[in-house]
């Protein structure tokens, strides 16, 4: 927490999750940027909203969360993104994601190009690349980052909004790939590569795409982190789940926070699992927390 403050971008979809209990601002970039900021870095969401009531409300909500809306584009033609969400008895979400919304039309601008050159880490996913325009913009952003910048591909297989080509191209541009244990066999099958064990498949991805780290999350079963020459397993934390929305994004934010500081695989695993479990125990992806409460949470890591 005393180290230099890094500039970390969440790039992609910004939207409203329309839950049975009401709407909550969502999308991986905002969730990721919020937890990044809580941990002490400068979390910046980069996305696109419609010029409508939901877009205006989203900007107000970002401000309430302490996040800048300076890199949020506005779209006069397409509406703000929306997702219909239903929760099952275990708190697991099911998503119905609306199409042809503002974040499908991300533009590559001089402002975003400047941000890319100043970024220490950027997190992007597969969902925001479902349209050709946004996919091209995300690729341009990644290619404009410094060589030493950390590029995190957080896989997010939703509905039919992905292809093997998009997944492979994204991994080629990434430093770190994060995915869950259900996505891993689907991805290996899409790449026409045999999947046996999580660790062996992670190492295969590292070899195929020159990655520095592959992270496999296992829900409340913890995680597996693999590098070219090391591996760390974590059992996770048992918590009373409120809902799991945003828990994976929180995990990724904590992982990146520790990676930027040269932490060991064991510490990255511990911090990421602890922060992810905390978000799962709260309602929504951006729970409000007092700074001293977060410090107590992280002090448990040691």
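^ Assign residues to that structure.
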């Amino acid at each position: 927490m005393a180290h230099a403050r890094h500039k970390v971008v969440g790039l992609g979809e910004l939207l409203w999750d329309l839950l049975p209990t009401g709407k909550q601002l969502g999308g991986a970039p905002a969730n990721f940027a919020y937890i990044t900021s809580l941990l002490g870095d400068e979390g910046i969401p980069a996305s696109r909203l419609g010029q409508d009531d939901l877009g205006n409300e989203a900007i107000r909500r970002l401000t309430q969360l302490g996040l800048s809306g300076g890199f949020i584009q506005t779209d006069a033609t397409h509406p703000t993104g929306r997702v219909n969400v239903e929760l099952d008895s275990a708190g697991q979400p099911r998503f119905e994601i609306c199409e042809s919304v503002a974040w499908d039309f991300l533009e590559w601008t001089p402002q975003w190009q400047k941000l890319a050159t100043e970024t220490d880490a950027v997190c992007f996913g597969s969902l925001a690349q479902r349209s050709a325009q946004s996919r091209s913009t995300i690729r341009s952003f990644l290619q404009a980052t410094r060589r030493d910048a950390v590029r995190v591909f957080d896989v997010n297989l939703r509905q039919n909004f992905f292809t093997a080509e998009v997944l492979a191209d994204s991994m080629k541009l990434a430093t770190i790939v994060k995915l869950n244990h259900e996505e891993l066999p689907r991805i290996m099958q899409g790449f026409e590569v045999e999947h046996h064990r999580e660790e062996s498949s992670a190492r295969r991805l590292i070899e195929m795409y020159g990655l520095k780290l592959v992270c496999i999350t296992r829900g409340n079963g913890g995680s597996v982190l693999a590098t070219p020459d090391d591996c760390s397993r974590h059992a996770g934390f048992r918590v009373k789940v409120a809902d799991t929305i945003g828990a994976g994004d929180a995990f990724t934010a904590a992982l990146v926070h520790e990676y930027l500081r040269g932490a060991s695989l064991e510490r990255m695993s511990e911090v990421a699992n602890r922060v992810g479990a905390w978000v799962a125990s709260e309602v929504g992806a951006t729970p409000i927390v007092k700074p001293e409460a977060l410090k107590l949470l992280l002090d448990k890591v040691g």
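The two ends are 13 Å apart (CA to CA).
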